[in-house]
Design goal:
alpha+beta; six-stranded antiparallel beta sheet; 4 helices
Length: 169
Amino acid sequence: MDYSVENFIQCLQDHKTATLALNHWCTGRKLPGAHALQAQVLQDIVVDPQSYDGPLSLEPGEILRHRRVCLNWGSTTVSEADNWYLPERLPPAMREQLALTTVPFGQVVMALGPVRTRTLQAKATGAEQDPRFILHVNAVLHTADGTQIAEVREHYRRELVDPIRNCAY
């Protein structure tokens, strides 16, 4: 398999969640040190919905959380992500799993039949771009019935196609 940026983009398009795509990609690439993706949670806090500038439609009084993670395959950071999510739209067991484990969001919500709608995709190229990244993707995550549950802003690391480095987020 060709582990190019273009093939990684296709891998993302071929999977229901980024978590599934990254697990498939890293397994195929035989990255050392793991058998599954783990989320290193850097922040998971309630935020003021008035400060949120994304595509999620919130109901009055609804709680919005901002979760910042590094997604790691063993000791290799493969993605950094910001996730704004609506915890009240998730079953209690999923909220608990997000709070207490290193399981990535996309895997936690898999039973809801998630559907990703990309709102932005940009290759990281040019002198003005951070050299740590190869791709930036923004997406809204819906349940199978169309209920919005999260917006993600994903930053895919060069480690997916180049030699291994570590998280600096």
